[in-house]
Amino acid sequence: MRELKIDPELRDLLPPLSDEEKKKLEDSLLKLGYKGAPIYTWHGYIVDGHNRYELCRKHNIDFLTDDLDLGDNATIIDVMEWMINTQLGRRNLPPAQRISVVDKFKRKIQEQAENKKIESNQLFRGNRYTGKLESSPNGEQSKKIHTDKELAKMAGVGTGTIARYNRVMNSDDEELKKKVLSDEVKINTAYEEIRKKETRICKVCGKEKKIIDFFGNDNICKECTRKEAEKNVNIPKMQSKSTQIEDIKDVYEDVLTAKNAKDQINQDYELSWLNETCTDFISQVNDRLFDLLCAVEKMDREHIEEANSVFENFISNVFDIQEKLNNKMKVEEM
Ligand SMILES: [Zn+2]
Asked: What is the pTM of this model?
């Protein structure tokens, strides 16, 4: 039987199968033998099929292999990206676990960039060549560093959810972190819990106040900001219209991204994705307009009216979607 190499980092990129999933796979292999896609390898290392490989070896079942060709310049980053794109969608994982997979990927990119920086610094130490290298020691690599938006897409969640996840994971509430990762507590609930506990000291009045008593990342509490604003006639510059539209487009894009190949569709996953996306949208808008950034307080009548028409448009689109669902049910009843 062919022996394949295992890289722990690649093996552990996605969470292990549940006992139940593993049992199902084992039963199917014993009953039907090896079926379906080959076990993929890259330079001899398994990149898809760790579980099937382990079970085939255990029961001495023949399996197929195929080499993954990502081109000569491919690195482990490309391999991980391929793994996430092909494997994350077919696993029915809760959002927190999907984000944690993408988070491992992001850390790997950072680690690689850091290594490359050290390498090139060592390489050029004592050399007169200084300027250019230090400013861009890893130009090629940094081009590849994925934006939060791209990472969010990979995980199949909104960027807001990633931000909330990070806030929770950066907290010192170990118990809560564990519960989020095991899907016992939803990301939004955990985030609210963390936020309620956070305080900040106001730079003006010196009082320790809850985070909700500040605008966004301000160091001056709302009360002091208001007092300050009353003294000041200058109206702060409005966020440009095009950025606002970009933001709304982001939300649409998140809503519209069909991440998974059609044949991998899992209806429970779709439902939790829908739920997560809608909840995320509502809490992002609430945070931005009212609760956290309180943008609405800096908007004039004209802009509030425009925001209102954006919502009118949005609501009518939502009604259209609901109509489609209703029609689908009617067809089903006939
Ligand atoms: Zn204050």
From this structure: 0.58
